[in-house]
Amino acid sequence: MRILLTNDDGVNAPGLKVLEAIARQFSDDIWIVAPAEENSGAGHSLTLTRPVRIREHGPKHYSVSGTPTDSVMLAVGEIMKDCLPDLILSGVNRGANLGDDVTYSGTVSAAMEGTLAGVRSIALSQVYGKAGLGDNVSFDAAEKWGKRALEPVINLEFAPRTLININFPALAAEQVKGIRVVRQGFHDYARAAIVKGTDPRGYDYYWFGLHGIEHTPEHETDLESTGDGFISVTPLQLDLTHQQSLPTLSSAYGGA
User: Fold this and answer.
1) Which domain holds residue 23?
2) Does residue 110 contact residue 123 with C-beta atoms inside 8 Å?
């Protein structure tokens, strides 16, 4: 199996090294194409206003001066065009990609881009708690449970235009209770923090952050599962159509 690794934390991120160690338990044909710099929160953005460059760091090891989406597009459209991957793994992200955070996530978006290209794709993220500041994030759960989380789906045939989102709880590996297959949850939107400051020239600036989230997650969701100490596995789909609204909208437009 030929596996492509990517992420949104950058080609030198610790989580990418964790992912490579996990992937090598399944294959020795591992390719890395990841952003040169951190792109957390980039979502499914594509670079259109400047050229994107590729840098080779070694055999099958590349960085891209763009977003996670750019990285996957260049991987399948240029770097690996004559030897396309069988599987794309994106991560292991430094931080959760739970609930509606998937809409902001460069990690999940890289897997979405892989899915659009017709390649089975899986996003992996490591949740961390209040102690996870700077470089103090522990990937212990992902390191020790990564193989077990991927093994059941590594050769699974995915439904068309779907991907898998996996989150490891903020626990030591021995404290993880198991794996649950669950649906996507939703945060309280008020969780976002806007930090205001003033630069040396007297101009205001604003810094977006996600502080501790107070919420009561619905049952059988990714939020509840990781909060309860389980690894969450959630199938996501690219089709955002709300099917139940089609008849209502059709009637509103006179049945058109």
Assistant:
1) 2-186+217-252
2) yes
- Domain count along the chain: 1
Number of residues that this document lists for the chain: 256
CA-to-CA distance for 170 and 126, rounded, in angstroms? 7
Instruction: Convert the pLDDT of each residue in 230-244 to its tens digit.
Output: 999 999 999 999 999
Q: How many helices (H) and strands (E) does the chain have?
A: 6, 11
Residue 211 lies in a domain: no
In the 3-class helix/strand/coil scheme, how is 189-236 assigned residue by residue? HHHEEEEEEECCCCCEEEEEEECCCCCCCCCCEHHHHHHCCEEEEEEE
3 state SS for 144-202: HHHHHHHCCCCCCCCCCCEEEEEEECCCCHHHCCEEEECECCCCCHHHEEEEEEECCCC
pLDDT tens string 185-233: 987 766 567 889 999 999 999 988 765 555 666 889 999 999 999 999 9
Give SS3 for 32. Answer: strand
CATH number for the domain harbouring residue 26: 3.40.1210.10
